[in-house]
Specification:
Elements (H helix, E strand, L loop, with lengths): L9 H14 L3 H34 L6 H10 L14
Length: 90
């Protein structure tokens, strides 16, 4: 494991020390856990952003299902004339 020095603001250092004592964990463990969670959140946000860009591109290219088609399909549920799920471009 490597060693990294970090300068903390006094209130963060106090909170870190208090939480470490409360959880009976080391400050190092808490910092590692916080960074791990931060990196996971950042990765999720990047993935969501990429999905958003891809969805916007799909809409721009006409690969989307209209709200009207979805509404008509939902309204047909549980009826004798239930419609198949709508496809892009409908």
């Amino acid at each position: 494991m490597s060693v990294t020095t970090v300068r903390l603001q006094p209130e963060l250092e106090e909170n870190l020390a208090e939480m470490a004592e409360k959880l009976q964990r080391s400050k190092s463990w808490l910092i590692n856990q916080a960074l791990r969670e931060f990196f996971e959140r950042q990765a999720q946000e990047q993935a969501r952003w990429q999905e958003t860009l891809e969805a916007m591109e799909s809409v721009a290219q006409g690969r989307a299902v209209s709200g009207t088609a979805v509404h008509e399909w939902l309204q047909s549920w549980s009826s004798a004339d239930e419609l198949p799920p709508p496809k892009a471009g409908q």
